[in-house]
Amino acid sequence: MNLKQALIDNNSIRLGLSAATWEEAVKLSVDPLIESGAVRPEYYDAIIKSTNEYGPYYILTPGMAMPHARPEAGVERDAFSLVTLQKPVTFSDGKEVSVLLALAATSSRIHTSVAIPQIIALFDLENAVKRLQAAKTPEEVLAMIDASKDSPYLEGLDLEG
Fold it and tell me: Which residues of 30-57 are buried (b: 16+ CB within 10 A; e: fewer)?
C-alpha cells in the first residue's frame, strides 16, 4: 500500500477542518474512508471503543495521531486518509493533535511493515506537523509525501503494491 496513491485513490485529504472534540476529529478522519468504501461505518465505533479502553495509543508524535482499529473491525481494503484541523483537539491523556492520518489495514503485516514506515518517513521531515497544518491544497500534502520518499525508513519497501 502506497500512502500517496491511497490518499489519491480514496480522495481522502481534507484540510483545515474544525472539530470540537477528539471523537469528532477521529470521525472526520474516518469519514473519507467510509465514503470511499475502504471501511464500514462500524470502524469508527471500534476506534472510539479501543481509545476509551486503552487511551490514545495512536498518537505517534506531538501533534499527530494515526487513528486505527483491528482489521476485523470493518476494514474492506487498505487505505489512508489525512485530515488537518484549524485548532488542535485534546485527547484524554492531555495531548493535543492537529493532524490525523487514519489507517485502514487489512492485516497486521500491512500495518507494521508497510504503513508505519511511510508515516514515520513523512513525519521525519522537518516541521512536518506544522507544514501539513499549513497546507492549503492536497497537492501540497502529496509534495511532502514525495519529499519523504528517500527516507531510510523506506529502504527495501515495495510501495507499488
Answer: bbbbbebebbbeebbebbbebbeeeebe
Catalytic residue among 3, 36, 38, 68: 68
Asked if 111 is an active-site residue, the reply is no
123-156 pLDDT per residue, tens: 999 999 999 999 999 999 999 999 998 888 888 7
CATH for 3-149 (3.40.50.1010, 3.30.1490.150, 3.40.50.2300, 3.40.930.10): 3.40.930.10
Is 5 strand, coil or helix?
A: helix
In the chain, domain spans:
3-149
* Lookup: cell for 5: 496513491
Contact 101, 63 (CB under 8 A): no
Q: Which residue shows C-alpha cell 474544525?
A: 18
